[in-house]
Amino acid sequence: MTRRAQKQLEEGIEWWIKDQIVHLDVPLVMGIVNVTPDSFSDGGHFSSPVAALNHAQQLIQDGATIIDVGGESTRPGSSTVSLQQELDRVIPVIEKLSASTSCLISIDTQKSTVADLAIQSGAHIVNDVSSGRNDPHMMEVVARYKVPYVMMHMQGTPKSMQDSPHYSDVISEIKEYFNDRLKHADSQGINRSQIILDPGIGFGKSLSDNLKIMANIDEFHSFGCPLLIGASRKSFIDMIHHSEVHKRLGGSLAAALAVLPKNVQIYRVHDVFETCQALNIFTAIQKHLD
Going along the chain, which residue ranges are E strands? Predict the structure, then answer.
């Protein structure tokens, strides 16, 4: 780990977002709002703007600091949706959410136009599973608005990523990927302090890959960026302990608690109340260790 990265971890990282300072010295929970009919966990449950808004407001009450709104499923095997369809799904939700709450809003998209209009509608963070590879104009938008930018690692595309994922060394290859994308972001005028790194649990990864990433996630602190983990209800849980999607709360919490001591700053989850409770209790106990 570089001295800069170590110093940031010791002092805590701060963002200036929406005219407020957001401290990352305590874990933040990002609640998921899928405005889609086909997401792997809750597809169709919140596909109308009213249902999505109500769900988002409940997640905020449950303790979410960030609400992540997405209009295109990126589950394994999924296909892309049209620009207009994605806009029709997410913009009304973001507009209403921005008008009714002070919560931070993230737009989960690979399309620069969606990111641009979402920010104009009230979003504060761009969450891009393609790290700018899918749309060459994405980083231009991020640089122009100077918003936080989540760059995720994915091998392949959502449609094909789980067909036959393979790595010689998953940690070193993800680090090479991040190094490349960070250099590109720098060339586009994006400040390193804006960037959050997500190693992409379940995005072109085998069970062994996912477990190795979570066991060694602190390796990615070497870049000096906050880390985000999205392990909630993922299929690796089912591979270890057979369970349907809505019966994976225990596994989701176990994954969150496993990476908490490794200074992961942001947790993207479906079950916000339970995750906040687990993180708070675990942290309280850790403070009393001899």
Answer: 14-17, 20-23, 28-34, 66-70, 104-108, 125-128, 149-152, 195-198, 228-229, 266-269
The CATH number of the domain where 220 resides is what? 3.20.20.20
Backbone angles phi, psi at 121, to 5 degrees: -90, -5
CB-CB neighbours of 10 under 10 Å: 9
Q: Assess whether 159 carries a catalytic annotation.
A: no
What is the structure's pLDDT at 41? Answer: 52
Question: Which of 160-164, 193-197, 244-248 comes out lowest in average pLDDT?
Answer: 160-164
| Structural domains of the chain, count | 1
Instruction: From the candidates 96, 181, 233, 268, give the one annotated as an active-site residue.
Output: 268
Res 8 pLDDT > 60: no
The string over 183-214, giving b where at least 16 C-beta atoms fall within 10 Å of a residue's C-beta and e elsewhere, is eebeebebeeebbbbbbbbbbbbbeebbbbbb
Spatial distance between the Cα atoms of 251 and 257, rounded to a whole number of angstroms:
10
DSSP code for 227:
B
50: how many CB neighbours lie within 10 A of its CB? 11
Look at residue 154 and give its three-state secondary structure.
coil
pTM of the model: 0.91
254/259 Cα distance (integer angstroms):
9
Which range of residues forms the domain containing residue 79? 3-286
Q: Give the number of other Cβ atoms within 10 Å of residue 11's Cβ.
A: 9
- The answer to whether residue 234 is catalytic is yes
Catalytic residue among 234, 247, 262, 287: 234
Q: What is the pLDDT of residues 16-55, one digit of tens each?
A: 776 677 878 889 999 999 998 755 455 556 667 888 899 9
